[in-house]
Amino acid sequence: MRIATSMIFDAGVASIQKQTAALQHTQQQVASGKRMLSPSDDPLAASRALDVSHASANNEQYLSNQKATGESLGLVENSLTSIGDLLQTVRTLAVQGGNAGLNDSDRRSIAADIRQRYTELLGLANAADSTGQYQFSGYMGATKPFSGSVEAGVVYAGDDGQRLLQVSASRQIAASDSGNDVFMRMHNGNGTFVTAATTTNTGSGIIDGGATLDPSKWNTVANSKDFSLRFAVSGAVPPVTTYDIVDNVSGNSLLTGAAPGAAPYPRVFQPGQAIDFKSQGAEPAFDFGAQLIVSGQPASGDTFAVQASSSQSVFTTIANLITGLETSSRTSANATLLANRIGTALTNLDQASNNILTVRASVGSRMNELDSLASAGQDLNLQYQQSLSNLQDLDYADALTKLSQQQSTLDAAQKSFLKVSSLSLFNYL
Fold it and tell me: Is the distance from CB of 172 to CB of 181 less than 8 angstroms?
């Protein structure tokens, strides 16, 4: 086969260019620290690295969402702590206002103090986070949730939603709470039923909040959950106070099974002794699993209401307390009415405080979950970085060895080309 001079030159140049390209590729790998400079270097590893990078980016976004959610919940926790402290202060003032040694001016001063706490509570209920979103407006973060006053009442303008953030591939966590759940939907009374004195009572009887001994019995179908406790005082010496429990729905007495009769009533009253909503002796059988205590001495015709608990806002509870303290208590009847109002307010404030604690517990559990998710997310991030490093990063020992080998190969190619290109018959003539 005849080998032309041009073939020698073409082959030499092609070999040198190939070796130079290989050397340059290795130099770029060493300079960048990456094994893959383009997907063609390792298509399978490049595809896998793309998947891992995508997953890592998602994980970084989840970590960012976790941080944002944690910051929002931290602000909510601070607000709830302040609200709990405020309710405790109002409760202390209510107890102080019930002191029989205070005059009307003293009570009005306490009421004025509680009015300031009312305004402070309204401000806390309208608290916003660092982005300007209201904490307790549900989905409607840009809407101011609460407005109103002691006299006009408070209106909620938000909704029942909770703003959710995706904090992991399979988990969303609420970064806010509905103002309805925090402030507006608290059960009054003891949470099962509520007691109240009629405003026309003239005796000194004061009713407590009552207790539910067996919720299943209270919630039985036979229980109307709407009763009147009626008192009468006989003319005997000493006078005897009796009472009846009337079902306001059927109109019948629980103690006789018939329409309420004239005084004296079926049961004898003893101040401070528990009044059971359970049959005694020859009374018709009933047991609604509840009891209450009336202290003091009711007068003839005095009545007390016992009804199922309903939703009542904390603003209404405090407003009723303010109104009660501002009402004159110079007469004994007014003093008894005030004592009953304060007792009701204290029971309702306890319900409000318990509700705030329940919401705080929910916020705390969410924050704990975020801590766990953040720890898992950071560990996962390290795993992704390790996987990407295994797929993309350069083995410097191997690369530098290869670079040295390629440099030697290129030098050899260049020298051999010089030798071959200098071959000519004219050199031997």
Answer: no
